[in-house]
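In response to the reviewer comment on reproducibility (Comment 2.3), we provide here a single inverse folding case reported in full, input and output, so that an independent group could reproduce the run without further information from us. The structure tokens appear first.
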């Protein structure tokens, strides 16, 4: 099955009982048992729900894994995956990882004795220096947020195997339409499905896919034990969103390429970060490991004041956190998504006060470019 076909025909198709072509929303908490312990595969909806299962089968197929899991948010998915570790374990993470991932590891999981170190995963020699006897995993986000740094997943997976680490990849920015980390050797993929997978700014959700039965059993145990599951309505919305994931990602790609070129040529723009630009330091790697470069672009407007001015002038870019939806969004990471990262660390990473991040939507390219052009004047 090819990529676009799989978005429609992957997972579980419709409903066998009625012929409905859309998976029904099983709005139910419990299931009648014939005898004690004799049932049709479902006992209680925290443990399993048919609509959620249809979504979990679909994301499993898209990521080419062994089993999929749906959670109430991307952070809940990441929390569940980190719950595979125990007191005393240590995890290495990409240094400009999503702000919420930085927060949960450095302010929540540390209290349970799970330690983390943030390191530039584009440089595996630097990563190697941080390995300890108790290191259990390497958590990579690629491309990153907001600087769009790209980590070589094949090299990272060979590195992880050599050191006996699990490789966990946050695939939110690329989606399985462009990038399938498990096929490059990763062990676990996580998603904020709130972003491209849902795609319409109407649902908060998280997904995880694992590459072995052992990890599947462990993660299902944690999903059921901790209970941060996705409800049937939201599961259905994600299945619906996934049907057009390919069309949306292609449309976003076209717009993002044109906008990144426009920004590169604009005299008021100091620097543009987009993996699709030949000037991006990992452009060739990005082209090799993913089918597309995605719709996230960051650019430096020079100062906090200039950034604020641009944000106040745009019409088609909504000032909002989040990303990956049909509508274009604009934000200043230093003051919004990355405000939970201390200022000192932001400066180290290069997240300047003038840095603007845009999530390119599927509007007409000409309107988006004209909008940015007049805002930058
Ligand atoms: C948004 C985001 C998350 C967190 O997901 P939520 O659905 O907001 O909980 C994790 N990783 C990345 C890369 C994200 O963009």
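Designed residues, in position order:
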């Amino acid at each position: 099955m090819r990529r676009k076909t799989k978005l429609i025909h992957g997972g579980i198709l419709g409903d066998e009982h009625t012929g409905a072509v859309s998976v029904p929303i099983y709005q139910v908490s419990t299931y009648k048992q014939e005898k004690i312990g004799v049932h049709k595969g479902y006992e209680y909806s925290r443990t399993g729900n048919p609509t959620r299962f249809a979504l979990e089968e679909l994301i499993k197929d898209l990521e080419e894994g062994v089993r999929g899991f749906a959670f109430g948010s991307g952070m809940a998915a990441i929390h569940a995956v980190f719950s595979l570790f125990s007191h005393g374990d240590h995890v290495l993470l990409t240094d400009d990882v999503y702000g919420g991932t930085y927060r949960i590891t450095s302010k929540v999981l540390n209290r349970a004795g799970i330690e983390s170190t943030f390191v530039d995963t584009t440089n595996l020699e630097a990563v190697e220096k941080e390995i300890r006897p108790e290191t259990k995993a390497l958590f990579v986000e690629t491309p990153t947020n907001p600087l769009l740094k790209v980590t070589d997943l094949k090299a990272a997976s060979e590195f992880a195997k050599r050191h006996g680490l699990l490789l966990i990849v946050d695939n939110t920015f690329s989606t399985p339409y462009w990038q399938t980390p498990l096929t490059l050797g990763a062990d676990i993929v996580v998603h904020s499905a709130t972003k491209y997978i849902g795609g319409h700014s109407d649902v908060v959700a998280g997904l995880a896919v694992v590459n072995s039965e052992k990890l599947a059993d462990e993660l299902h145990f944690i999903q059921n034990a901790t209970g941060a599951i996705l409800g049937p309505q939201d599961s259905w919305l994600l299945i619906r969103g996934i049907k057009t994931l390919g069309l949306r990602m292609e449309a976003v790609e076209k717009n993002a390429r044109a906008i990144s070129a426009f920004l590169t040529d604009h005299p008021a723009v100091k620097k543009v970060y987009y993996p699709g630009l030949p000037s991006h330091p990992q452009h060739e790697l990005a082209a090799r490991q993913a089918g597309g470069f995605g719709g996230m672009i960051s650019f430096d407007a020079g100062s906090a004041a200039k950034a604020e001015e641009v944000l106040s002038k745009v019409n088609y870019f909504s000032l909002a956190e989040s990303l990956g939806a049909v509508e274009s969004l604009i934000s200043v990471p230093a003051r919004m998504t990355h405000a939970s990262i201390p200022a000192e660390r932001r400066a180290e990473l290069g997240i300047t006060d003038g840095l603007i991040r845009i999530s390119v939507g599927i509007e007409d390219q000409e309107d988006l470019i004209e909008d940015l052009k007049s805002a930058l004047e």
